[in-house]
Amino acid sequence: xxxxxxxxxxxxxxxxxxxxxxxxxxxxxxxxxxxxxxxxxxxxxxxxxxxxxxxxxxxxxxxxxxxxxxxxxxxxxxxxxxxxxxxxxxxxxxxxxxxxxxxxxxxxxxxxxxxxxxxxxxxxxxxxxxxxxxxxxxxxxxxxxxxxxxxxxxxxxxxxxxxxxxxxxxxxxxxxxxxxxxxxxxxxxxxxxxxxxxxxxxxxxxxxxxxxxxxxxxxxxxxxxxxxx
Length: 229
Hints:
Layout: H1 3-26, H2 29-59, E1 96-99, E2 104-111, H3 115-119, E3 130-132, E4 142-144, E5 150-157, H4 158-161, E6 177-181, E7 189-192, H5 196-199, E8 206-209, E9 214-218, E10 227-228
Parallel strand pairs: 6-9
Antiparallel strand pairs: 1-2, 2-5, 3-4, 6-7, 8-9, 8-10
């Protein structure tokens, strides 16, 4: 065998080895689809949980079904907590939602992979193991979103997830937040500055009285004063 042929053979082996290693690290196309679907499922459940929590925060009860999110908590006849991400992206079957008690509910989905497997090849694109509370409603809890493969249910406590910290002259809000009183809520709470309408559950706009704490009300047709979008 001549030297050029030896080098050619070694080069071919190197290419094959490189391709094999690449496939091993990246996983099969089918497994990558599973990862993507599981990522979407987790994102959907997090979005649904935020909508359920917002409904509970204003209505002081849990919705009887996910469909109720688009029918209640309305202002001016417009849906307040609607989310359309209620079906599995692969099977098109609806996610399971079940009320456990007056404050606790479950969200269930069927995952293709374990949480660790779904995160293995995308360390910078994955969802957090423990997700900080959504900014609306404000809360101090942390939700664990890890899961096994197969059907799994997450148990969530809406009251804990919507816990609010009172604010005032002796307990001011942190930088970037506003101390406000919100519709149908007792006391005052810190909300992100510039997001007062969203924190109040107003779908379109709200009026904010210049006081301390500021008074936030959802805008009505006859309202006067500053209207914020």
